[in-house]
């Protein structure tokens, strides 16, 4: 959708947006990231989704490069908009011990109240 408008002095400007209209949209994730990345003492996971004003069950699982699960974070989040950005991690494993520096893979898994789910994998770097 592109809109062009003029003011009373005949100055014009235009705006542009894209959207998709579907009858049955599946839960989708985008812009999955952690910040800061790389990090030393803590980081925050964030993502965008297409299920506003809904309760989401969010799971973040952090793995070593070899595939060993080192940390699971599970939260229920009530969303107002399309962004979740309040999932904190202090760099400790499930036993409360600090993990070693290096590259890790994390999986963000989200399930909505309708039972739909979506997941994405990303990388993070821990510096000590």
Supply the key terms.
9 strands; elongated; three-stranded antiparallel beta sheet; mainly beta; 128 residues
- Estimate the global geometry from the Cα principal axes: elongated
Range of strand content: over 45%
Number of helices: 0
Strand order of the largest sheet: 6-5-8-9
Number of strands: 9
Query: Stretches where pLDDT falls below 50 for ≥5 residues?
Result: none
Give the terminus-to-terminus CA distance: 48 Å
Biggest sheet record: 4 strands, antiparallel
How would you portray this structure in words?
The protein is mainly beta and about 130 residues long. The protein has no helices and nine strands. The strands form three sheets. The protein has a four-stranded antiparallel beta sheet, with no helix packed on it. It has a three-stranded antiparallel beta sheet with strand order 3-4-7, with no helix packed on it. It is elongated. The model has no long low-confidence stretch (mean pLDDT about 95).
Summed up:
The protein is an all-beta fold and 128 residues long. It is 0% helix and 55% strand.
Topology summary:
Layout: E1 2-6, E2 12-16, E3 29-35, E4 43-49, E5 55-64, E6 69-78, E7 83-89, E8 102-111, E9 117-126
Antiparallel strand pairs: 1-2, 3-4, 4-7, 5-6, 5-8, 8-9
């Amino acid at each position: 959708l592109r809109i062009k408008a003029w003011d009373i002095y005949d100055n014009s400007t235009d705006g542009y947006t894209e959207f998709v209209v579907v009858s049955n949209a599946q839960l989708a994730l985008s812009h999955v990231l952690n910040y800061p990345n790389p990090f030393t003492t803590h980081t925050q996971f964030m993502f965008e989704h297409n299920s506003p004003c809904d309760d989401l069950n969010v799971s973040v699982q952090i793995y070593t490069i070899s595939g060993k699960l080192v940390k699971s974070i599970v939260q229920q989040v009530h969303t107002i908009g399309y962004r979740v950005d309040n999932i904190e991690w202090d760099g400790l494993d499930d036993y409360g011990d600090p993990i070693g520096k290096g590259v890790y893979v994390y999986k963000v898994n989200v399930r909505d109240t309708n039972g739909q789910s979506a997941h994405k994998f990303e990388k993070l770097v821990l510096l000590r």
